[in-house]
Write a structure and sequence with these properties.
This protein is mainly alpha-helical. The chain has one domain. It is 85% helix and 0% strand. The chain contains 4 helices and no strands. The chain has helices spanning 2-25, 29-49, 55-77, 84-103. Helix 1 packs antiparallel against helix 2 (29-49), helix 1 runs parallel beside helix 3 (55-77) and helix 3 (55-77) packs antiparallel against helix 4. The radius of gyration is 14 Å and the shape is flat. It starts with a helix and ends with a helix.
C-alpha cells in the first residue's frame, strides 16, 4: 500500500504544479484550489508512504514522478520544448525511479 501512496503522491504533485502554471497564467479560485489541493494531498500521501518506505526512497520516487509528470504536462498542455535531449533526460529520471522500486 505504501507504494500506491507514493505513486499517488507523485501524481498529486503534478496536479499542484499544473495548478501553479494555470494560476500564473490566470489567477482564479479554481486554479488556486488546484494548486493548494494538489500539493496538500501530495504531502499527506507522501507522509503515509513514509510509514513503510525509507525516507530517501519515498522522496526520490515522489520527486521523480513529480518531475517527469510535470515535464510531460508542460509538453502536452503548456507548449514546452519537445527536444530529443529533453525527452532523453526525462526518460533517465523515469528509469532511475523504476530502478529504485526494483532494488527496494
Amino acid at each position: 500500500m505504501s507504494w500506491m501512496f507514493v505513486i499517488l503522491a507523485g501524481l498529486f504533485e503534478v496536479v499542484g504544479v499544473a495548478g501553479m502554471a494555470r494560476f500564473n497564467n490566470k489567477a482564479s479560485v479554481l486554479n488556486f484550489l488546484m494548486l493548494g489541493g494538489g500539493f496538500l494531498t501530495s504531502f499527506l500521501l507522501l507522509s503515509l508512504s513514509m510509514e513503510q518506505l525509507p525516507m530517501g526512497t519515498a522522496y526520490a520516487v515522489w520527486t521523480g514522478i513529480g518531475t517527469v509528470g510535470s515535464a510531460l504536462v508542460g509538453i502536452l498542455f503548456f507548449r514546452e520544448s519537445r527536444s530529443v535531449l529533453r525527452l532523453f533526460f526525462i526518460t533517465l529520471v523515469l528509469v532511475a525511479v523504476v530502478g529504485l522500486k526494483l532494488v527496494e
